[in-house]
Structure prediction request, 286 residues.
Amino acid sequence: MDLRQINFELLDYFIDFLSSSSKKSKGTIENIKRDIKNFLDFLFESSLEIDEASIKIYLGILQDKYTEASFISKSSSLRQFVNWLNLDQNPFWDISLSNSMDDYKYYEKKDLEKLFMVDSYQTLLIRTLYELYLSFEELIVLSLADYNSAGNTLKIRNRDLKIPTELAYLIKNYFKVQRIFLTPASTGLTLSDPLFVSLASGLATTERLTSSELFKILTTQDLKNSFLKRSRIIHLIEEGLNSDQIEDRLGIKISDFFRPFFKDQSYRLLSAYNQFHPRAKLNNKL
Prediction:
């Protein structure tokens, strides 16, 4: 009996336990079963076992992919299953899924700029996630056909998004230098090949990245992609862009979460006046 079959038998036992021992509705139990099945499928596809490390990786992927409400719901399903398994090292003992200061966390631009000074393939991936406001899945599915090197655009969210100038240079340099070593010389590139390739099999590969790889890359820098994406919008607001400009640049719809970060026009005019107008400095001294 292989590990996947064993895991799914455990799932069946757990669902039987919920059905007989809890007051949950049939619909709720079906939702829990679906959430855990997705987790077990992830383990199988990633060749991982049920342990503290794999659970943390999967939680990071869920947080990147879903809204806060959906993340908490799916995480709750997984937490019930893991508690039932009675793992020796249960990651939910020190993970809070309720509202916390993390709900408002973002990274300072100067700190990310220091990170981006490092010239590596991993840093390029992090910067691409940040600059273009990408989820793991959106980055993974990018193919050479989505990349327009002449126009410096990437087809994302059904739109040709302009790649910021410095990132466009780094991607072009990636093809000129790094991609030569990342792709076997005997393998010709096709438009269906991934834009960014996996490092799991060493440098000579044409395989796509996985969510697990991206999660581990960010973890080495103590980063979360949900905070990285949030930071991108806040930094654009700090640069003076309004919501329409940000939505047009990133091809997204901004949520009400970011409303407090916007300053109204009168505030901007007053700030500019106080900073540059000589009369303002005189008035401040009176």
Notes: The radius of gyration is 23 Å. The first helix runs from residue 3 to 21. Confidence is low (pLDDT under 50) at residues 97-101, 265-273, 275-286.
